[in-house]
Amino acid sequence: MAQKPSLPKGTRDFGPEQMFKRNYIIDTIKEVFKKYGFMPLETPAMENLSVLTGKYGDEGDQLLFRILNSGDFLSKVSDTELTEGYKTLSPKISEKGLKYDLTVPFARYVVMNQHDVTFPFKRYQIQPVWRADRPQKGRYREFYQCDADIIGTNSLVCEAELMAMVQEVYKKLSFDAYQISISNRKILEGISEVCGAKDEFGRFCVILDKLDKIGQEKVFSELSEVGLTKQSLQTLESILAIEGNNTSKLDELANILANSEVGMLGIAEVKETLNNLSLLGFLTDKISVDFTLARGLSYYTGIIYEVKPTSIQMGTITAGGRYDNLTGIFGLQGISGVGISFGIDRIYDTLEELNLFPNSDAKYSKVLLVPFDDEAQKQALQLLGQLRAAGIASEVFPEPAKMKKQLGYADKKGIPYVLLIGSEEIKQQRFTLKYMETGKQDMFSIEDVIKNLQEEDH
User: What CATH number corresponds to the domain at position 315?
Assistant: First the structure.
């Protein structure tokens, strides 16, 4: 009995309909990346494990897909090593792994090509990555990342450019119901300082980040267990109560963080970024300063931001921030960068839920040539050459078949026009062009068929 085919867990096929929609998103984002001066980059699916391990923390290391060495991978392994567990065995039988993200390979590329790269280096990269995670809704073992980074400058102009790109991408996708939340690691450091939690910064942020999920009362209870005094909690309460527009929020916070040098620097950076964005001609009312935004603090050192839809329940669809020493892990110190990542799968789900994908005939052939017999088939091939030379996406049913079957093919594929070719049409050199949706049809010369179909595109 033939084996029933299956897919590895956590992976997916994308059929033509899904690919049209995915390509629509990717092409739109790519167009904006190019417009802003970003250069394309691709790195291999696999990297040496020495490049990948130790860059994502213990948890990340465990999620790396390791690739067995080629050939007899056990030949250099002793019997003792076989019994010592996977940690001893793994380096002996596997030297490579599938890439876990696009950032570490990017850092590796920059370090290896530092003398050829023009800094600031603006690159975009859209490729699949792999994680041996437990598959669940919205989480896959193979998924695409879509990143743009600017590396080799500290300038806050870059942060503003990335936020301008967010607004331009979503405008092109006809999606307007979103909000960009922005903060700065330095602001969080300042808040932890004035709350007397400077030495517990990590734990302080982890607890603060739960605010949306468990509410203020439980957050304060957990913070008091970490050692925050009643007075510190009152200070934090006054910070969380700050409301108003971005300028008034930042000014009010500045009064509370006046004695925190790092906090004041963070406030200045956010103000400058928002000012740069308005100079670029982009609205800042899409942006909300959020002092409790605490994502990526193991690597972000400055501005951090994330984008979420406001009209539907959906997680973060775009995020990023500033990192001050990305290439330091490979020995090239002091190269600052800022990056952004568009979550293609979540953007897809958002546009699908809100019915924002365009209904376009452009994704299919424009016309199907329908020959009635063998003689008509020869004529169809000649016409097909002319239609394609004129830039019209067209195809012919490749074998003699009943007209009903050929029209059914056009209907199923969503091809909007059919060109009927019979002996009468060949004699007159005028062909019946039929619009499938309405059934309306007329006879034209091939020149007029081409003219009509081209005009339809404009």
Answer: 3.30.930.10
Looking at residue 458, its pLDDT comes to: 61
Q: DSSP string covering 173-238, please?
A: TT---EEEEEEEHHHHHHHHHHTT-GGGHHHHHHHHTTHHHHHHHHHHHHHHHHT--HHHHHHHHH
Q: Is residue 302 part of a domain?
A: yes
Q: Is residue 4 part of a domain?
A: no
* Among 335, 353, 371, residue at a domain's last position: 353
Count of domains forming the chain: 3
Q: Which two tokens stand for residue 390?
A: 């004129």
Examine the fold and report which residue of 326, 353, 380 is the final residue of a domain before the chain moves on.
Answer: 353
Does some domain include residue 6? no
pTM: 0.91
| The pLDDT value given to residue 58 | 84
Confidence of residue 362 (pLDDT cuts 50, 70, 90): low
The span from the CA of 58 to the CA of 310, in Å, is 34
Range of the domain at 396: 362-457
Provide the 8-state DSSP code for 396. E
Strand partners, 306: 181, 319
Q: Does a structural domain hold residue 203? A: yes
| Pairwise CA distance, residues 233 & 267, whole Å | 21
| Identity at 149, one-letter amino acid code | D
Is the pLDDT at 326 greater than 90? The verdict is: no
Kindly state whether residues 31 and 177 are assigned to the same domain. yes
Instruction: Report CA-CA distances (Å) from 293 to 117, 185, 252.
Output: 33, 9, 17
Can you give the pLDDT at residue 146?
97
Strand order in the sheet with 96-98: 46-48, 96-98, 66-67
- Kindly report the backbone phi and psi dihedral angles of residue 65, in degrees, each rounded to the nearest multiple of 5, phi listed first: -85, 115
Residues in the chain: 458
